[in-house]
């Protein structure tokens, strides 16, 4: 049994186990143990995969003369590791008090295991049809996970399903076109046939695959479904979805467009009049995906929605880096996938802890929780520093790599868009941490306790991983090397501390060490000079001579950026929302028309006619 | 050994120069208002007085830690900023790193002000972050254009390239539009009128400083010294040829800050949305034109 | 306390200043944050640091821009070009947290006195109060009114008074220079009196505002933190304060006992 088979069987066994015993109190810990074993299996596979081998699986079957097989190469290994790691932390979080407080934890366990199994099947697929099978499995498993809570989750999940099905049909159409050209589903056959394809066919394939696979990634203009769907999922599962599920779309895009079709081909494929190549078009779509959802996130008043909108934006960064294609760009993009998984999970688990304790995630009705939930605050702080891409966390390194690659390839306007996205992120994450943890503590939250250790430990572990890979980015870059060589991008030469390029270097070991030393020196200056501090109550505050009392709120939370909203608010005219609604209305009208055609009063008469004609044809045709 | 000397001396030089810059700012303001202005050691008196206050009011551990983060962030930024004779760690972290390190103190200040639980402070930080979004866009355009012209983001090399041919190879001479757009962005970065919206003393009770007293406010004063110095030196390094020697370098830094301060004292204060709109129109527009000229020149 | 007329700068005889016993001196108790030993007891290093600190403190003073009454009209000329306070290092600041000097410029109505006391307590020590105008000395023009306060230093300790109605900027300058000299020589210590004789001041405040008067500032806690709590700090009036329930936050906490929330409630 190869390591891939181990992984598949672990996931299948866990799924069955959760079916029968998911209600048990220790089910969460058992799930965590199994996912931990899967991580070990992935690490064991890593030794073989990094040497360039692919690990085959025993799972394969033949259909219509085509052989479908599953195998693990570098890219699949990377995403499998992310999947197993995210599931491990999600189940750890849900194993203790949080799981006990949920109404249907068994269902969550089952669906998490199902999603993991589906994702492993997807990322380790060996040809186009197995890719499609995995794709559909992932779509449906994710739908089940999103819809499980009911209530507002149902329309959001249904909307996701419509997008996903439409995208899947586009992908299927593309696969069928490839099959009709090459006669097989194998990746190699496709790659070999690409240079001989005409530009029209290539554009069609590019459009079908980019749109179909990009729907899962929620690139603009398909970005409307992701935030509500991911936000209404229960906490730990939502963290898992945020961290990995959207990256399935990125995986498939990278596989089909970058590895199989190739960036050179995409770069040479240009629109006739405007001379914009497919690669540039996709890069600009990624750039808009970076900027637009980030500023939508800024306006959100629900903490979960804010984070999920940021997830859409960060996907744009990853796609952009991978599309640049150089060692720096691909390394930055892949490392961003890894980094994003760590800090987005940390952020989402922290917000779920807040919801668990206070019962609300409304940013206008929280505040001052730092005194009551300090460890959750620390996690959220590490998460937002990572999300904003500031040193010393890992998000800074991947963003630096992506910026560097954009500079080297001479794309200044894309770099400006990336920078604007980062600035918007900084604003919006500060709003998140301020409205939840800083400011004034509300009287109704006076009695809140910190989240239990079963919830705090995985959060802090994720934050710690982020800090560690920020200090020693070589650790994460070793992992992305494996994936990078698998997709055919040049390998990034890196040290433990960072990279050295001829035009500018980054050494995180020096940077973080100096930063910590400077903070230490600042602490010496601050604590030793000057007298000892005296801590005061939050009511002992400047209010223009006014006497503060606990029943009158004295907090600035609502509409945190009014000046900015006044400027960019009018730019968000809801065009894409209206387009979506228009398509829905069109489908409604077309359905009504179609119904009007065949739904008439004389149905038995039609049935009689159809039976007579069929009898006539059977008698006549059957005679021959 | 020289690295250790760099690490210790560079922040110290930055602090002392920053004190002189703060004094210059107050004296220039006084002269414009036909007054005398404070004595020479006034910034030192202010900082010592604040640190020796008997009452140090704190609003929690985060309040203290954020001030420490603030100081630490700027000290780190100084070590990565090359000055004549001291390269520091400029080879291990380039221009992009420096710009990101300069955002760490802002984050520290934001966290500290948030923990003060005063809405005046929170409004001040909201405005400060919005203003940061506003002026960072033209700054990004100017920095990117400069980087593309020099072909590197290593600050030491950028200075070397500019000093190779005297004044004619300075950034301001080879990319005048980018230099102008960058200067307008830098003026916004100083946080002086007309972009002083985040302090706004009469409106929001000095915004972030509202609940800062004693050594907390002293640390903010120290931050102001570092801030004037860092931004001035950054602009001089990018567009004014860096420092061939100490007198020329100091002259350039003081000139950059002087022009900004002189303009400041004759302006009122723009509203937040006006800051955003103005910054995204004029400096960004000028810098974008400059960037396109740079691209055209490189393509040709 | 008898209500005999006090001269300017005269401290109420609560016994702390005149008594020569050790309890009267600001002794450094265990765990005191900023022990303030009496001038004779300090070591050499401490003397040098205090001298340096006083030197800097005298040359950098922030005035709280708090305009109480009509005397505030004389502040702008003192700050601006003609009389230029910034020459001696004095600048206006906005909040009590940032200010060193509280200028009570004019008459004080009862309503304003509450806010003045709140602002005074929010200012970090060392802090200096200047009574500006005759209204703060003996009621001035409103000596016969039922709605104003006649003697400022019965409610908060005052360093210097400026007579006049209202005093011209030259008079203001003279007093500020006198204050600078006092600080420089270490004589301006009226702020300690608030902690040392809190019961006296609180008593006067309670006589005006009622027995339930309190501010969010924990003055007794601060007095203990800074080692200035003495015999005059506690008394019948502070007992009333403690009985009234304490600070508003403590009152609120008493109404809502801490309870743990472990599950999701309906948002």
Distinctive features:
heterotrimer, A: 624 residues, mainly alpha, two-stranded antiparallel sheet, 4% strand, globular, C: 267 residues, alpha/beta, Rossmann fold, 2 domains, five-stranded parallel sheet, disordered N terminus, disordered C terminus
Total strand segments of chain A = 5
SSE pattern of chain C: HEHEEHEHEHHHHHH
Radius of gyration of chain C: 20 Å
Mean pLDDT of chain C: 78
One letter per element, helices H and strands E, the order of chain A comes to HHEEHHHHHHHHHHHHHHHHHHEEHEHHH
Beta content of chain C: 5-15%
Terminal CA distance of chain A reads 55 Å
Tell me the β content of chain A. Answer: under 5%
The residue fraction in helices of chain A comes out at over 70%
Relative helix content of chain C: 25-40%
Structural class of chain A: mainly alpha
From the spread of the alpha carbons, the general shape of chain A counts as globular
Strand order of the largest sheet of chain A: 1-2
Number of helices of chain A: 24
Largest interface: A-B, 79 and 86 residues
Spatial order of the strands forming the largest sheet of chain C: 2-1-3-4-5
Name the CATH architecture of the largest domain in chain C.
3-Layer(aba) Sandwich
Brief write-up:
Chain B is mainly α and 300 residues long. In chain B, 72% of the residues lie in helices and 1% in strands.
What does this structure look like?
- The complex is a heterotrimer of chains A (624), B (300) and C (267).
- Chain A is built from 24 helices and five strands.
- Chain A has 624 residues and is mainly alpha-helical.
- The radius of gyration of chain A is 26 Å and the shape is globular.
- Chain B is mainly α.
- Chain B has helices at 2-32, 42-51, 61-79, 95-101, 103-115, 119-150, 155-163, 171-174, 176-190, 201-204, 214-239, 246-264, 272-299; one strand spanning 56-58.
- In chain B, helix 1 crosses helix 3 (61-79).
- Chain C is α/β, with parallel strands linked by helices and 267 residues long.
- Residues 1-35 and 258-267 of chain C have low confidence and may be disordered.
- Chain C is globular and about 55 Å long.
- Chain C has helices at residues 44-58, 75-79, 110-122, 134-138, 169-184, 190-196, 198-209, 219-225, 236-243, 248-255, and strands at residues 61-64, 90-93, 101-105, 128-132, 160-162.
- Chain C starts with 43 loop residues before the first helix and ends in a 12-residue tail after the last helix.
- Chain C folds into two domains: 33-187, Rossmann fold; 197-254, no CATH class.
- Chain C has a five-stranded parallel beta sheet with strand order 2-1-3-4-5.
- The interface between A and B is large, with 79 and 86 residues.
């Amino acid at each position: 049994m190869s390591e891939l088979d181990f992984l598949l069987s672990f996931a299948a066994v866990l799924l069955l186990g959760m079916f029968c015993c998911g209600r048990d109190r220790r089910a969460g810990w058992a799930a965590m143990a199994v996912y931990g074993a899967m991580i070990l299996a992935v690490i064991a596979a890593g030794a073989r995969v990094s040497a360039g081998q692919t690990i085959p699986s025993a799972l394969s079957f033949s259909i219509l003369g085509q052989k479908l097989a599953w195998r693990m190469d570098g890219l699949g290994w990377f995403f499998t590791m992310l999947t197993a790691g995210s599931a491990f932390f999600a189940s750890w979080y849900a194993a203790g008090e949080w799981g006990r407080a949920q109404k249907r934890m068994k269902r969550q366990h089952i669906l998490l295991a199902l999603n993991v199994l589906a994702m492993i099947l997807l990322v380790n697929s060996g040809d186009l049809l197995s890719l499609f099978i995995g794709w559909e499995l992932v779509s449906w498993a994710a739908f089940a996970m999103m819809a499980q809570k009911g209530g507002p989750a149902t329309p959001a999940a249904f909307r996701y399903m419509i997008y996903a099905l439409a995208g899947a049909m586009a992908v299927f159409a593309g696969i069928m076109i490839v099959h009709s050209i090459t006669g097989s589903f194998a990746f190699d056959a496709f790659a070999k046939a690409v240079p001989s394809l005409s530009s029209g066919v290539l554009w069609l394939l590019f459009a079908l695959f980019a749109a179909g696979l990009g729907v899962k990634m929620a690139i603009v203009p398909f970005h409307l479904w992701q935030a509500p769907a991911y936000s209404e999922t229960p906490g730990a599962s939502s963290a898992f979805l945020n961290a990995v599920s959207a990256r399935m779309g990125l995986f498939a895009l990278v596989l089909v467009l970058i590895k199989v079709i190739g960036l050179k081909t995409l770069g040479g494929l240009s629109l006739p009049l405007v001379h914009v190549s497919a690669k540039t078009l996709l890069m600009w779509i990624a750039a808009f995906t970076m900027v637009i959802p980030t500023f939508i996130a800024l306006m959100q008043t629900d903490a979960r929605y804010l984070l999920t909108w940021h997830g859409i934006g960060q996907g744009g960064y990853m796609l952009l880096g991978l599309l640049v294609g150089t060692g720096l760009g691909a390394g930055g993009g892949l490392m961003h996938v890894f980094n994003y998984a760590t800090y987005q999970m940390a952020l989402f688990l922290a917000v779920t802890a807040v919801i668990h304790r206070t019962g609300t995630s409304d940013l206008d009705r929280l505040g001052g929780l730092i005194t009551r939930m300090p460890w959750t605050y620390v996690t959220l702080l590490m998460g937002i520093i990572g999300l904003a891409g500031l040193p010393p966390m890992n998000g800074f390194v991947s963003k630096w790599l992506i910026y560097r690659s954009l500079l080297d390839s001479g794309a200044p306007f894309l770099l400006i868009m990336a920078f604007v996205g980062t600035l918007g992120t900084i604003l919006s994450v500060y709003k998140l941490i301020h409205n939840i943890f800083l400011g004034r503590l509300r009287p109704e939250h006076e009695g809140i306790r910190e989240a239990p250790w079963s919830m705090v430990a995985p959060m802090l572990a994720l934050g710690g991983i982020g800090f560690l890979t920020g200090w020693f980015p070589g650790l994460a870059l070793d992992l992305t090397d494996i994936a990078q060589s698998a997709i055919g991008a040049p390998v990034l030469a890196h040290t433990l501390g960072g990279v050295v390029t001829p035009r500018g270097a980054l050494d995180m070991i020096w940077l973080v060490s100096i930063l910590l030393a400077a903070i230490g020196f600042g602490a010496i200056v601050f604590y030793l000079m000057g007298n000892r501090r005296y801590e005061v109550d939050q009511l002992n505050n400047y209010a223009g001579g006014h006497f503060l009392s606990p029943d009158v709120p004295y907090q600035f939370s609502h509409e945190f950026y009014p000046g900015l909203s006044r400027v960019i608010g009018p730019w968000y005219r809801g065009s894409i929302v209206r387009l979506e609604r228009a398509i829905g209305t069109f489908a409604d009208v077309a359905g009504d028309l179609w119904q009007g055609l065949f739904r008439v009063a004389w149905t038995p008469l039609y049935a009689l006619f159809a039976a007579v004609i069929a009898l006539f044809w059977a008698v006549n045709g059957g005679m021959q | 050994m020289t690295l250790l000397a760099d690490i210790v001396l560079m922040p110290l030089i930055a602090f002392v120069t920053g004190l002189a810059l703060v004094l210059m700012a107050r004296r220039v303001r006084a002269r414009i208002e036909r007054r005398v202005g404070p004595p020479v050691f006034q910034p030192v008196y202010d900082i010592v007085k604040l640190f020796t206050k008997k009452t140090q009011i704190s609003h929690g551990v985060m309040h203290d830690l954020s001030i420490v983060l603030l100081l630490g962030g700027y000290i780190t930024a100084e070590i990565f900023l090359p000055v004549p004779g001291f390269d520091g760690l400029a080879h291990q972290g380039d221009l992009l790193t420096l710009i990101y390190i300069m955002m760490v103190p802002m984050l520290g200040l934001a966290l500290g002000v948030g923990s003060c639980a005063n809405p005046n402070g929170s409004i001040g930080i909201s405005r400060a972050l919005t203003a940061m979004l506003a002026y960072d866009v033209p700054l990004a355009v100017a920095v990117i254009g400069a980087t593309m012209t020099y072909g590197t983001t290593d600050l030491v090399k950028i200075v070397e390239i500019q000093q190779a041919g005297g004044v004619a190879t300075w950034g301001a001479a080879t990319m005048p539009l980018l230099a102008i757009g960058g200067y307008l962005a830098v003026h916004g970065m100083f946080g002086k009128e007309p972009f002083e919206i985040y302090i706004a003393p009469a409106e929001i009770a000095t915004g972030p400083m509202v609940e800062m007293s004693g050594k907390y406010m002293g640390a903010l004063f120290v931050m102001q010294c570092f801030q004037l110095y860092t931004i001035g030196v950054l602009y001089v390094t990018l567009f004014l040829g860096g420092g061939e020697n100490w007198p020329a370098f100091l002259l350039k830094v003081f000139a950059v800050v002087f022009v900004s301060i002189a303009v400041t004292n004759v302006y009122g204060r723009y509203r937040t949305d006006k800051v955003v709109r103005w910054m995204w129109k004029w400096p960004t527009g000028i810098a974008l034109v400059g960037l396109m000229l740079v691209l055209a020149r490189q393509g040709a | 306390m008898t209500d005999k007329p006090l001269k300017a700068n005269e401290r109420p005889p609560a016994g702390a200043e005149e008594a020569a016993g050790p309890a009267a001196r600001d002794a450094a108790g265990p765990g005191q944050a900023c022990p303030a030993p009496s001038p004779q007891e300090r070591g050499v290093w401490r003397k040098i640091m205090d001298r340096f600190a006083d030197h800097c403190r005298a040359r950098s003073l922030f005035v709280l821009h708090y305009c109480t009454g009509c005397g505030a009209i004389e502040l702008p000329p003192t700050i601006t070009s003609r009389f230029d306070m910034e020459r001696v290092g004095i600048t206006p600041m906005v909040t009590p947290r940032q200010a060193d000097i509280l200028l009570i410029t004019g008459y004080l109505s009862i309503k304003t006195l509450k806010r003045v006391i709140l602002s005074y307590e929010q200012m970090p020590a060392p802090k200096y109060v200047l009574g500006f105008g005759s209204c703060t000395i003996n009621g001035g023009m409103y000596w016969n009114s039922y709605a104003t306060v006649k003697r400022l230093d019965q409610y908060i300790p005052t360093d210097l008074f400026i007579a006049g109605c209202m005093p011209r900027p030259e008079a203001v300058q003279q007093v500020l220079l006198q204050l600078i000299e006092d600080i420089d020589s270490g004589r301006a210590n009226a702020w300690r009196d608030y902690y040392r004789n809190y019961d006296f001041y609180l008593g006067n405040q309670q006589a005006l505002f009622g027995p339930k008067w309190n501010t969010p500032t924990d003055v007794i806690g601060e007095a203990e933190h800074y080692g200035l709590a003495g015999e005059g700090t506690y008394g019948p009036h502070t007992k009333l304060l403690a009985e009234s329930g304490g600070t508003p936050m403590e009152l609120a906490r008493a109404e809502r006992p801490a309870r743990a929330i472990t599950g999701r409630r309906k948002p």
